[in-house]
């Protein structure tokens, strides 16, 4: 199982104090593994935020959360055909996936060196994972996120070949679709037009947090477990 990180020294605001009309819940703290695991378990995730012309570390819980139901992804016939052209691997190129997701060529990029290093540390402790689409032994696309119990918090995805990131997402859904699938949560933070086209829906914050509490009681999906033999 994942290695328990050192406890975070930071305290996040209680949910009762969260502004019901603001996605931003808190500012500050750090990106240490214990802080990240605690935050995700509370329904928060980090992103840079600019306040008064200065950049800070922000912690968000969207008022309308983007969630992809495991039975809700829209899969076209062409995507099904494309899926046969890729090999799916898990956690074989985590750092490369995060680096590709944080490429400076991508618009609205937010994955800085600090974030890359933070999720690398989380990965080495067994909390963060990548799902990768390979073709001809070349990384063609993938995604990464944080897995805590029955929560998979998707952070970002990329592709260099058509449909590769979608194939990775489809593979992730297959990995999560076990006997606990009805209670697992695949969180994608916000619903964008692109994600909506894939089947992502909006869930009110209170509904998301209720589902999260149930999901956290579940075991990790088998592909993300680490047995005693490593």
Automatic annotation (TrEMBL):
Catalytic activity of the protein: N-terminal L-lysyl-[protein] + L-leucyl-tRNA(Leu) = N-terminal L-leucyl-L-lysyl-[protein] + tRNA(Leu) + H(+); N-terminal L-arginyl-[protein] + L-leucyl-tRNA(Leu) = N-terminal L-leucyl-L-arginyl-[protein] + tRNA(Leu) + H(+); L-phenylalanyl-tRNA(Phe) + an N-terminal L-alpha-aminoacyl-[protein] = an N-terminal L-phenylalanyl-L-alpha-aminoacyl-[protein] + tRNA(Phe)
Keyword terms: Acyltransferase, Cytoplasm, Transferase
Record flagged with keyword Cytoplasm: yes
Subcellular location: Cytoplasm
Pfam families reported for this sequence: Leu_Phe_trans (PF03588)
Enzyme nomenclature, EC number: 2.3.2.6
Gene Ontology terms, MF aspect: leucyl-tRNA--protein transferase activity
Residue ranges crossing the lipid bilayer per the database entry: none
Superkingdom as given in the UniProt entry: Bacteria
GO cellular component: cytoplasm
GO biological process, one term: protein catabolic process
The keyword Transmembrane helix appears for this protein: no
Function per UniProt: Functions in the N-end rule pathway of protein degradation where it conjugates Leu, Phe and, less efficiently, Met from aminoacyl-tRNAs to the N-termini of proteins containing an N-terminal arginine or lysine.
Family the UniProt entry places it in: Belongs to the L/F-transferase family.
Protein name: Leucyl/phenylalanyl-tRNA--protein transferase
Designated gene of the protein: aat
